[in-house]
Amino acid sequence: MAATTKSRKYVYIAAAVIILAIIGVFLYQYLTPPPPAAPTPPQPAAPTPPQKVKLVVIGPWAGDEAKYFQAVIDEYVKKHPNVEIEYRTMRAEDVAATMPVQFAAGTAPGDVIFGWAWFIAKMGKEGHLVDLTNVINEKEYVPGIVDAVKADGKIWGAPFTMWLKPGFWYRKSFFEKYGLTEPKSYSEFVQLLEKIKGIPGIKNPIATGDGVGWPMSDVTEHFIIAYGGPQMQLDLISGKVRFTDPRVRSVFSDYLVPLLQKGYFSEPIEWTTVIPKWWAGEYALYFMGTWITGMVEDPNDLDFFPLPESKGVVGGADYAFIPKYSKNIDAAIDFIKYLATEGQGVHASVPSGKIPTWTKVPVSQLWKPMQSVYTKITQRGMAILPDLDDSIGGDWQKLFWDQLKLLWVNPGALDSVLKTLEASQPKP
Amino acid sequence: MKIKGIKDLVIFLGPPLAILAIFVFYPILGTIIISFLSGSSFTFENYRAVLFETIPLKALIVANPGPYPPWGALVHNAVWIVIAVPTVVLLGMVLAYTLRKIFGSSIVLGIIFLGMVLPGVVSGLIIRFMFDGYIGIFPRIFSLFNIPLLSSTWTIYPETALFALILGSIWLWLGFSVTLYSAGLDSIPSSLIEAALIDGASEREIFTKIIVPQLKPVTIVVTLMTVMWILKIFDIVYVVTGGGPGGASTVLALIMYMYFASALEHNKAAAVAVILAALTLIPAYWYIRMVLSGEKL
Hints:
The structure holds two protein chains of two kinds. Chain A is of the alpha/beta class. Chain A is about 45% helix and about 15% strand. In chain A, strands 1, 2, 3, 6, 12 and 13 form a six-stranded mixed sheet that branches. Chain A has a five-stranded mixed sheet with strand order 9-8-10-7-11. Chain A has a two-stranded antiparallel ribbon with strand order 4-5. Chain B is mainly alpha-helical.
């Protein structure tokens, strides 16, 4: 009995020592300030490595979209047979969730990784990424597109191809069949919706895409740009204009909310599953990005119109970065330079629904349906503006999506929604 | 003898303790310490901040005042427990008892158990379909009674999103409950029921006066395990509603994820994790106590 008590005592002592040791180690590691990150010198474009190297590239594309990106990789590998590239799919949300912890441990799961612009700028600022200032020639890109990945005067990410969210897509054959035309003013737009509502088989004139919530934010931003002006979009991003501002409220209350109240928009439906329903004529219009061109049965039957008063469209690029912890930094720099330049031409020439941000790619190289989209936008002289929620990012982005979901099913909650968004909106 | 005892202790306890220290104690203690750190000082600031946060997708107690929704994740978890636990217990017991006497019950049991073996993401997608306004079984049923709100897609309305998740979770967890009750029923001596029958007891009396009391240990296990499961529920909420709309269906584990993955506020995420773990420890304590006392409660 006494021996058992003694044994127990030893166990308790051993456990206490272990726990204290753990606490000690942890506190030491956590509270000791890390050595200042060695500044990464601006990287010149690296020559192709002479020996065989393997690069792990992480991007958000899966399915057909991955196939189109694979075409870009294949083209590079054809010219660089000593480079093997393994592509892995990871959503931008997961990149933002998992990478900071890995970076803190001094590791990275890939050599070239695609992520949100705000995340890249943040990680660059914290010293986890390779400085690409000498790799990316800012003057060769769509104005403003590189700004999103700049921090402390350095460029931390390489812009890849760009999507646009130009307006409401429709089937030309549907419009012809019912004698519908593109509207020239907001009142004509409302008349068009009313006309569509009366067509047999139509559930709602406009299909609302859902998912994590971004399709509703795209529609909302289009209304902000059209009826608040492109500057309002930029000022909301910077925080100079607040969501409770009467001018912002009037965009919602005078233009968007009345359409929601009249049932012109459908309930939010998962954004990919609604495509066949829209195509089959259950809905007439669908607000989506240019990637829709690669997702429909016949892209030649596809056309779009922006809100008539709109002077701009939202456009955004995918951005890639190189973690400082990559074991093949030179090869990664060469590949990222290709992605940011010639690789964009390859990606835009396949049905990816994207256009290049690198201005040296000729329009003739674009996939045919995208050529007409691009021409229509440029003919209207519309400015390309940054995406509101992508630019702000973080948990505000999720809040924005969530509050818009609420607004869609309960338009009466407008003031509460705007107040909630304003409360968390970053200040200038 | 004394030295041999110490040696034995080191040999037998050393390796498992080392593994536990690295993979269990270290992360737990690390999380607790992080939750109290704000900058380089020890403080309750993270706990204060997460408990009184009012942004709808991060609120634990009360969300930002507005028409929808007034409550935060802790309240949602509590509502979930209040509805799901009695339902899982009652349905599990009744189904296990009833299905024993029906031919082909193993097929029905298999279907019920399906929810348990499906990955969380797949279960979430199925729940989405179950409550979809066009194809979902629940909205279809309520459309027959002409109830507009319940005939629409439940997961997109703040009034119904949480209840869709709760009902979905009941289906998922029912398999566990039915399985345990089936095993419990097998362990009841048939002589007890035979004696009751000879004494002229009715089916209802046998069920309420013999079966239910005999199944008490199983009921306690099902209750405690269900409470623990609900407290840490994440996957189906993430897939089906993401905590929305308007924060109407947030749960503790999702808030922890929001702090960790979206806001990159790891200290606050650790604080929520500690709160979650502390709440889970309450039923876990009772469960362990029951197991250690030989299920004699």
